[in-house]
Automatic annotation (TrEMBL):
Species the sequence originates in: Neomesorhizobium albiziae
Keywords from the UniProt entry: Lyase
Protein name per Swiss-Prot or TrEMBL: 2-Methylisocitrate lyase, PEP mutase family
Leader sequence segment: none
One function term, GO molecular function aspect: lyase activity
Pfam hit, one: PEP_mutase
Membrane-crossing residue ranges in chain numbering: none
């Protein structure tokens, strides 16, 4: 427990606006060890690559027991803090989410992504409901004794078209403020790539902002200048790896 607490404190300290921690997302113990060897300061899973590696689709299709067992093995394989992508917490009701969070903490997590989209449905949870879900998450974290990092994710920019992002920013800022009051430690805005909007978001919230490094997103150094505190890579590493593997397999089979 003491080691997990120290790792959690270390992970919190890595989130600095203007000096973002880079999380090159992994999916199993082997990939985690490779990323650690590459010089990472922390390890993060991504729900999509973890599910895909086990033959499942994303959106909580991989059984929670399997996802937790995989994460437990990742924690045991590395010396770094490890954060888990828990999607929507495998349930809608706050008490269900709290149980999921507790199990993730027991598996060794020192942080987790927790999103506001309706998993398996459409749109986002109402802010009032999502606040209750984050409050339940924060309560579970407090009860555990591990100061885990709650990275509250909004999918508003993934749901909106790029030309709608300026308007969506208003809703995102409102959610950031509400999530912070509910106990979140970070704000994750995947899909946002416009420099001006990223800078506005970083200035509008005291929470460390997490941006995902997709093709349309500025490079890490520019994100740092805009005030970003965390840069993750989501499914990109896994997709690039599978493309390489398929090409090498084709060459071997046909050669």
């Amino acid at each position: 427990m003491s080691d997990q607490i120290e790792r959690a404190r270390t992970f919190h300290a890595l989130h600095v606006k203007g000096d973002p921690v880079v999380l090159y997302n992994v999916w199993d113990p082997g990939s985690a060890k490779i990323v650690e060897k590459a010089g990472a300061r922390a390890i993060a899973t991504g729900s999509w690559p973890v599910a895909a590696a086990f033959g499942f689709a994303d959106a909580e299709k991989i059984p929670l027991d399997l996802a937790l067992d995989n994460f437990r093995r990742i924690v045991a394989a590395v010396e770094l803090p490890a954060t888990m992508d828990l999607e929507g917490g495998y349930g809608v009701e706050p008490q269900v989410v709290a149980k999921t969070i507790t199990r993730a903490l027991e598996a060794g997590a020192v942080g987790f992504n927790f999103e506001d989209q309706i998993v398996g449905g459409s749109g986002l949870h109402d802010i009032a409901l999502q606040v209750k879900r984050i409050e339940a998450t924060a309560a579970a974290v407090k009860a555990s004794g591990v100061p885990a990092f709650i990275n509250a994710r909004t999918d508003i920019f993934l749901k909106a078209k790029p030309d709608e992002h300026s308007e969506a920013l208003l809703d995102a800022v409102e959610r950031a403020h509400a999530y912070e009051k509910a106990g979140a430690h970070g704000f994750f805005a995947p899909g946002l790539g416009n420099e001006a909007l990223i800078e506005k978001l970083c200035k509008a919230t005291a929470l460390p902002v997490n941006i995902i490094a997709l093709a349309h997103v500025p490079p890490r150094q520019r994100l740092a200048e805009l005030g970003v505190a965390r840069v993750s890579h989501g499914p990109v590493p896994y997709r690039q790896m599978t493309e390489w593997l398929e090409e090498k397999a084709r060459q071997a089979i046909s050669g």
